[in-house]
Design a protein that fits this description.
Layout lengths: L6 E9 L1 H26 L6 H22 L2 E4 L5 E8 L2 H20 L9 H18 L12
Antiparallel strand pairs: 1-3, 2-3
Helix pairs in contact: 1-2, 1-4, 2-3, 3-4
């Protein structure tokens, strides 16, 4: 059985630089919009309880994963892609899964006009791969380089 407090090294290799930067921006924009939703709720403007509940769950998850990304080193490779080296606790597998599910809801709310943040299919694909790759590595599989789905 895995020790949930165990810290493991994780590597995201051959990330497309432009798409990765867009993904980081998307997550930052999503975090800020969720924070605004929560501020609005405390000021009595809770117009959409679904959005409010989503924001309440997303803010801590985005902050937790954002802190892990900030603590990681990012290296530009010779081919222009990026390599991210960092550490996560095995227990953060649950955060990754929860975050992935919540970001699907963000995309759905965005499509119906409930959010300002818009998702890009390339960013969505990269983020899905990142969450899966990190989860797999936390469960012992060695890192694999990123390959965009065709």
């Amino acid at each position: 059985m895995l020790d949930q407090r165990e810290v493991r090294n994780v590597v995201l290799d051959h990330l497309p630089a432009q798409t990765f930067e867009a993904a980081v921006s998307y997550l930052g924009d999503t975090l800020r919009e969720c924070q605004l939703v929560l501020v609005g709720r405390t000021q009595g403007s809770d117009h959409d309880p679904i959005l409010s509940a989503l924001a309440e769950g997303l803010v801590p998850d985005l902050e937790e994963i954002g802190d892990a990304f900030d603590a990681s080193s990012v290296i530009q490779l010779d081919d222009g892609s990026l390599r991210l080296d960092g550490e996560l606790e095995v227990a953060q597998t649950g955060t990754l899964a929860h975050l992935q599910m919540q970001l699907i809801q963000v995309r759905l709310l965005g499509r119906r006009g409930g959010l300002m943040v818009r998702s890009d299919p390339d960013v969505t694909q990269l983020l899905a791969w990142i969450w899966d790759e990190l989860s797999d590595q936390l469960h012992g599989r060695p890192p694999r380089p990123y390959h965009a789905a065709t």
